[in-house]
Task: structure prediction
Amino acid sequence: MRAITPALLTAVLLGGCTQQVLPTTAPVPALPADSIAASFYFLGDGGRPDSAGEPVLQALTAALTRAPDRSMAFFLGDNVYYGGIPDTSASDYVESRRRLTAQVQAVVASGARGIFLPGNHDWKGPDGWNAVLRAERIVEETGEGRVVQLPGNGCPGPAFLDMAGVRVVMLDTEWWLHKTGPKPEGTAQGCADSGAVFDSVRALLAGAGGKPTLVAGHHPLAGGGEHGGYFGWKDYFFPLHHVVSWLWLPLPVIGAAYPAARNAGISRQDMSNPTYRRLIDSIDAALRDVPPAAYISGHEHSLQIIQLPSGLLQLVSGGGYYGHIDFLSPVDGTWLALARSGYMRVDVTPGGRLRLGVVTVDKSGHGTEVASRWLTSP
Result:
């Protein structure tokens, strides 16, 4: 996290721009189709797909269609911008439902399978729990038995999936941050004991028996975007566009206060917030005994790969609909930082190795792998 200093403010106002980082290491050759036991696709923050045809979903559907019986898509939260699924009587219910079902149908059309994890926008407001439950029902109704939302019932989890010798553990990280309304807690409401969630995560990782594991949730443990405390010149000059997307009223004095407040932890959605910090510490501690190959999240609208001080590899795949990207700056441990739309793909070899590919998508719906690396040792 960076403090807002006069020097930093001057640099941002005069020339601050997104700083993108591509790896200097050689890419890993693509695996032959007959050498892939399974493919996992991860993308987050896709909750406002274009009704005329979403490029990222087009690219995802095309990729899933190549081997649907061996493919699984994970949607990493913020699946419905900006306030989740409202009650059926609400004026925006039809559009909100369309935004969710467009993503579900992209998976169904391919013949593959998919899992949706909730994010903070899916939980937004005092009716957040009911919004998550409504989304769960819609996914079930339209997913044709191939797509589900996990963890169920608005519980924190963990849920898990075993496929092709790989275990994916899933958490609803917004459960810890949600404060504006009720949420389910404990066995009386169908959830695990909240005090034992991270013990369960440890048990699931240890119980994989040495097979590769991945952990997925909406919120990252580190990042170089606005949730990590990094802002571009637009945020300083036009602070109101965060409230109303089309409101580009120049307010540089007020704008300077906006990043400062965010860095002071005013929002639970920022890593500077004490509640979010406790969540980061809890997840990081739970993953230390039997580390997964990576922790994968969305939340920041970019593609990032960061090696954390603990040794854990953080993947941020928050480019789930075309053009929805934010200011980005590399942080300590950054291997890749791209303010681009797209997704990440993890291929599994028959021997259990995991190959990561980072795919960016252009406005025509064409996906291009721009970086790759092994997530597991030989």
Notes: The CA atoms of residues 225 and 328 lie 5 Å apart. The domain at 6-374 is CATH 3.60.21.10 (Purple Acid Phosphatase; chain A, domain 2). The radius of gyration is 20 Å. The first strand starts at residue 38 and ends at 43.
